[in-house]
Amino acid sequence: MKVETKERDAQMHSPGIVTANLSGELYNELVKSYFEGNLTGNATTGGFKISYFLNQSINILTVLMLLVTMVSLGCTMKVSKIKNHLLKPKGVAIALVAQFCIMPVTAFSLAKILQMDSIKAVTVLICGCCPGGTLSNIFSLALKGDMNLSIVMTTCSSIAALGMMPLLLFVFCQGFSGLENAVPYGGITTTLVLTLVPCTAGILINYYTPKYAPVVTKTGLVVLVVCTILVSVLSGMAVRGVMWMIFMPDVLAAAALMPLTGFTLGYVMSAVSQLDAQCCRTISMETGCQNIQLCTAILKVAFPPEVIGPMFLFPLVYIMFQCGEALLLTLCFRCYQTIKTPAEGTAPYNCVHVKQEEIKQP
Q1: Residues with Cβ < 8 Å from 44, sequence gap 6 or more?
Q2: Could you give the CA distance from residue 120 to residue 254 in angstroms, rounded to a whole number?
Q3: Cα–Cα distances in Å, from 319 out to 35, 92, 197, 267?
């Protein structure tokens, strides 16, 4: 017993060793060990410290970014469009399956293949389990997709994430030693619930006072840009000594391959389900584009900074590859249109076949 105790103590105080069980008191012990400068398996966050004022400032700005994003999303929603897609839910159902199957499995597979340590793995998993983001609406428009489906899908995935995200994280975290009981599900669930409030507020604004919806959206865009700049500057100050950690080869590989896999498999799944090309392009964007604001808020607020370290900036690396790949796909699509007559580009939105049914009615 004494020999085992000495070996355990030696491991707990040796750099490069991560404890196998992060639940309860041992998790608190790990947090304490990070204060003392110990490292995880791949030296992800060891010795990372941040001032209280700087940490709280980033937290507040991150939450504000999330709230503004969700209000703006709500202001783009119309109750009539939601009803149409819910009455003919094939497109939305396929998109939800793509969002909550393809991306989590991709995140889990990449974390395993790249042999990521626990902190990196949970970061990638949280990003992969997040719902779709508002950028998917912009790229769907650029690709001449079904904007009704895109906006409804973003909203539905945000609502479904309330139950799906904690469930998926619980399932996939079982595959990593030390993460079985370490994920703060309470904090994640609270963050998800809070996102529904501003989204609902935006929907109500658009329903009762539609003339104010564009004003709210434009104001939200300005606030979002300002907050993004401030968060970037403050985060740079916080991690200036360990910035290189988020540019490690495994982190960059995960950030590059996740959205590309989502775009590709989202399109393939839609095509196999016999949706038209317009809906396929839309679901492709919805699958690969994650809610980066939500991911950042969860990583920054739900985890102690001494544990998550600079990895809370992973969503920023992800969004760079996400936007770059989506823009490349858009460019390829536009080039294809110039070469071949884009007959499908002018086709009516028919994912739910609402217009056709209206024509048939006497």
Answers
A1: 117, 119, 120, 245, 309, 311
A2: 10
A3: 30, 24, 25, 20
pTM confidence score: 0.74
17 phi and psi, to 5 degrees? -115, 130
Q: How many CA atoms lie within 13 A of 272 on its CB side?
A: 10
The tokens 């608190």 sit on which residue?
A: 28
28 touches 36 (CB < 8 A):
no
Residue 47 DSSP class: T
Residue with tokens 């017993």: 1
> Tokens 């085992």 correspond to what residue?
4
Structure-token pair, residue 170: 């619980």
| Residues 250-279: tens digit of each pLDDT | 999 999 999 999 999 999 999 998 888 888
Average pLDDT score, the chain: 77
Q: Which residues contact 360 (CB under 8 A, 6 or more apart)?
A: none
- Give the distance from CA 185 to its chain's centroid: 16
Beta bridge partners of 273: none
Please tell me the number of Cα atoms within 13 Å of 60 on its side-chain side: 8
Backbone angles phi, psi at 319, to 5 degrees: -70, -30
* Angle subtended by helix axes 249-272 and 118-129, to nearest 10: 30
Say how far apart CA 272 and CA 140 lie, in whole Å: 20
